[in-house]
Amino acid sequence: MNLRPVLFTTLVFLSLPASVLPAAENTKPVNFEQEIAPLLSQRCVSCHSPNIKKGELSLATPDDLLNNGFVVPGDPAGSYLLEVVVPADDQPAAMPKSGEPLTKAEVDLLQRWVAEGAVWPKDVVLREASKADRSWWSLQPIAEVAPPEVADAPAEWRENPIDRFVWSQLAEAGLKPNGPADRRTLIRRATYDLTGLPPTPEEVAAFVADDSPDAYPQLIERLLASPRYGERWGRHWLDVIRFGESRGFERNQIITNLWPFRDYVIRSINEDKPFDQFIREHLAGDAIAPNTPDVEIGAAFLVAGPYDDVGNQDPAQAAQIRANTIDEIIRASSEAFLGLTVGCARCHDHKFDAITQRDYYALYATFAGVKHGERAVATKGQRTQRDKQLKDLQEQQKQLTSQQTDITNFALARGEAKQEHYDKIWSRPAISRQSTEERFAPVTAKLVRLEVEGQERNPNSNNGYGVDEFEVWTADENSQNVALASAGATAAGESRQAGDFDGAYSAALTIDGKFGARWLAAGPQLTITLAEPQLIDRIVFSSDRPGAVRDNNVANFVSEYKILVSTDGETWTEVANSHDRQPVSDAHRRKRILAAELTEDDQAASKEITQQLDKVNRAISRIPPLPVWWVGNRDAAQGPFHLFIGGSPQRPGETVTPCSLSGLSESAPVYELPADSAESQRRLKLADWIVDPANPLPQRVLANRIWQHHFGAGIVATPNDFGYMGGAPSHPELLEYLAAELVDNDWHLKPLHRQIMLSQAYRQSSEHRADAAKLDGDARLLWRYPPRRLSAEEVRDSVLQIAGKLNLEMGGPGFRLYQYLQDNVATYVPLDEHDASTYRRAVYHHNARAARTDLMTEFDSPDCAFSTPRRDETTTPLQALTMLNHDFTLDMAQFLAERLQQEAGDDPQEQVKRAYALCYGRSPSEAETKSCVALATEHGLPALCRALLNTSELIYLH
Fold first, then answer.
1. Of 82, 86, 350, 584, which sits with the fewest C-beta atoms within 10 Å of its C-beta?
2. How far is CA 180 from CA 641, 761, 784, in A?
């Protein structure tokens, strides 16, 4: 009997045995899609799916059930599937292994289904049931909502639609908002929100004195037009997209040419570039406008995250590293633009959201061609001009090089014809990295010198040549190595420099009697001074003694040398050399032959050519190079692309193609591209799909981010997760309204800033009310303006501005608050002293991963290994200790004292008044003035300034 058709067509069994007939009360046939499919999805598919396949069984389609005999249509007793879900002999059922066992009703349902023929409708594929399906709120089209009528609200709360939404929620909770904030508080709040800097005393005074009705709207316009606006809100966005200027992982090498992307972000926000265009440029700027650096740089977003460049020779591990790299890009993109944790579907269908593993690998196929690295980014005109300038010079270079090659080849040919001659001259064995020995006639020496004339290059090394031990043996029956530190010998030689690693490669390593750690040379000589003159006749040196414990430093080795001795350090005698040893490599052999075979005429001609080449090369070097930026590279990567079972590249599953996310197919347009589509087309199509007005997620996510940075928390408190595990909206209708407003304003951010900041909700005071706090302790419903502490950048920038030292230079390479050291891996040592070159805005700090920066790190500046959509706000003793004692704060206190003396004269009361205006935007009370004058009188004005810079009022915003 052919069983396969039974699984796909409804058959009526007229002669089934009574044992398998449905009970009389269940005469209605089992509905697979309504009864069996949900049961299998909820209880079985989490372990038995194509991408996990525990026990080599998938219950997503009927194939495994049929091919392996797990189900025999019409025969429940013979179906192994039913056997494993039914308890036997007081033993629990074998399946499911996790979760509660199937109920009797569920088992009976499966038995009826099998008895009726195990009907599985064609093309029905099951997936694990998620907590949030396509009906989830964030996946629905943006709803058209009208601001509620709030007849009971004051007139000023009925003007701005935002206020009507907020008032309605407050009224529903039995709450009322605070009254308006005073004008000094309001200008400080608005200035920090839009620029990240405090208002100047003059700006505060002018705003307080201006009682015109448009004073506040004009303030908002001035702040939005300030170049400081892009710096502040650019920092917010750089947090979201995990922008960092080092590679991360073990080596964590610094990236020195990613700063143009940071400048692009700041510039775009200052220009109020439509954010849909901004997103498209992030994903495909190089495809949208090739040879247009100001746009092309946007695609550096793709490679602005951590990058594992350690490398691995094992193909399986290399494939895993590559998969991890693409995964990082998928997570960064989906969280930043969609507010979805697509990365959770790497190994299996998402446990909570309507995201399948196929969705994940559709994005994998989209980004498969993205490679981390740097390349030239320039306009077509720049490239053409440079090519034109180089053309003639490169032709000259080519001709001269060819002439030089001819001379060399003729000399080499003459040498090869004398092979037997050179074999006689080079009679001794070649130099060995493991151990090289030289014997010579006994000679008295106080000093022994290794003079290096050539190196054997190691292709994996940028280090100098290495020597792990150098031995000098006496010429007697009881020969001893007298070149030991323990015997009083010393070693001198120029060592490789590596910052704080100096000493790790000292010449002293060559006489310590141990094999392993090497002296890495930076000069041609190693000189051993013996404790006293000795009669010697042998030396031995090495770089890789057999059995030595290596220090992981790859090194070059000596390929040509002389051994010299001296008794006084003035007169030296050569006692041995390597000139009669066999060459260590073909390159070494060529070098020797050329030295011997080039005639005087050859050498003169070669010298003339070399001089001409140097002249041409200098001319080439003077032509400005094209800018080289860390924007990534691309390869075709045209598939076929596969889903990875369990997330492992070693277990390729079904093929996938670049396409849109299936969970959004009902609320956003659908696309699918062939596997051989162009790499740039794949990214561009994804970008267009993301910002399509019918896609509801980017609008909601972006509107929520804007709201968050004005009120401290988003309407959705989890800005990168709008799924089941994310927070529920505190003001759902308001979020819909803001998202629609964003699109209506062509994705410009400034109109949304205006509307939010002109609302009464934003302008109210932060006064705490115990009765309201009992109902809404976090002020999520906005019965008051939520106060906040300044961010790390705001704290540092404010201190600099108050002290009169803030450098407002924009753009360019960043400054560093650490010393960068590199020795295979990178080390970032915080600077104790910050000089004037570091007095720029903190957004221009060279933001390396895993690099502590005093003050900034203490105040929760995040490590940029991951997206940080909302910063932590901790309170630790280190914050107070750093602000009180770091040289930066002490310097700023001194500078502030000097500023006060310059601007307020020698009157202590005027100095205090000016200090309060600079620090807090207000005048001191009489008691405050008295206390401050007393402190300055007793301990000095810098001590008072230090105290003011450490006050809560300075770093908290109300």
1. 86
2. 58, 9, 9
The structure tokens listed for 331 are 């997570």
- The whole-angstrom separation of Cα 941 and Cα 896 is 9
Report how far residue 128's alpha carbon sits from residue 84's, in angstroms, rounded to the nearest whole number. Answer: 20
Contact between 166 and 88 under an 8 Å Cβ cutoff? The reply is no
Instruction: Tokens 């989490």: give the residue.
Output: 46
Q: Could you tell me the pLDDT band of residue 748, with boundaries at 50, 70 and 90?
A: very high
Q: Is the peptide bond before 640 cis (omega within 30 degrees of 0)?
A: yes
* SS3 assignment, position 566: strand
Distance CA 565, CA 537 (A): 11
Q: What is the mean pLDDT of residues 740-769?
A: 98
**Long-range pairs for 84-93 at CB < 8 Å and ≥24 separation?**
85/110
Contact by Cβ (8 Å): 283, 687? yes
**Cβ atoms of 454 and 565 closer than 8 Å:** no
CA 359 – CA 350 distance, rounded (Å):
10
Residue 4 in this model has a pLDDT that exceeds 60: no
Look at residue 55 in the predicted model and tell me its pLDDT.
67
Q: Who's near 39: CB < 8 A, 6+ residues apart?
A: 106, 109, 110
As a dihedral over the C-alpha atoms of residue 903, residue 908, residue 909, residue 915, rounded to 10 degrees, the angle is: 50
Find, among 825, 860, 869, 845, the residue nearest to 249 by Cα.
825
Q: Which CATH superfamily is domain 888-957 in?
A: Phycobilisome linker domain (1.10.3130.20)
What is the DSSP code string of 327-354? HHHHHHHIIIII---GGGGSSSS-SSSS
Mean pLDDT of the chain: 90
Distances (CA, A) of 421 to 286, 426, 515, 594, 710: 60, 9, 38, 15, 85
**Could you give the CA distance from residue 698 to residue 711 in angstroms, rounded to a whole number?**
20
Strands (DSSP E) contained in 592-644 are 628-629, 633-634, 641-644
Write phi, then psi, for 560 (nearest 5 degrees): -150, 135
Token pair listed for 837: 């070159």
Q: Characterize the bridge pairing of strands 525-542 and 490-492.
A: antiparallel
For 588-616, what is each residue's pLDDT tens digit? Answer: 999 999 989 999 999 999 999 999 999 99
Q: pTM (2 decimals)?
A: 0.78
The ranges assigned to domains in the chain are 4-115, 232-262+272-376+633-732, 380-421+600-626, 428-581, 888-957
Give 442's DSSP letter. Answer: E
Q: Which of 17, 11, 110, 13 is nearest to 59 (CA)?
A: 110
Which phi and psi (to 5°) does residue 375 adopt?
-160, 165
Scan for tokens 């960092």, then name that residue: 244
CA pair distance 293, 381, nearest whole angstrom = 12
Alpha-carbon distance of 850 to 831, in angstroms, equals 15
Q: Distance (Å, rounded) from C-alpha 430 to C-alpha 436?
A: 9
Identify whether the C-beta of residue 38 lies closer than 8 Å to the C-beta of residue 129.
yes
* Upstream peptide bond of 698 is cis (omega within 30 degrees of 0): no
CB 21, CB 111: distance < 8 Å: no
For residue 837, is pLDDT > 70? yes
Backbone angles phi, psi at 192, to 5 degrees: -65, -45
- Cα 44 to chain centroid distance, Å, stands at 37
Q: Please write down the HEC assignment for all residues of 938-950.
A: HHCHHHHHHHHCC
Q: How far apart are CA 409 and CA 422, in angstroms?
A: 17
Quick count: other Cβ atoms within 10 Å of Cβ 649?
18
With cut-offs at 50, 70 and 90, classify the pLDDT of residue 50: low
Pairing of strands 652-656, 641-644: antiparallel
Question: Phi/psi zone of residue 539: left (φ > 0), alpha (ψ -120 to 50 degrees), beta?
Answer: beta
Q: Token pair for residue 547? A: 């059995």
State how far the Cα of 187 lies from the Cα of 208, in Å rounded to an integer: 9
Q: Is 503 exposed, middle or buried (0-12, 13-18, 19+ CB in 10 A)?
A: exposed
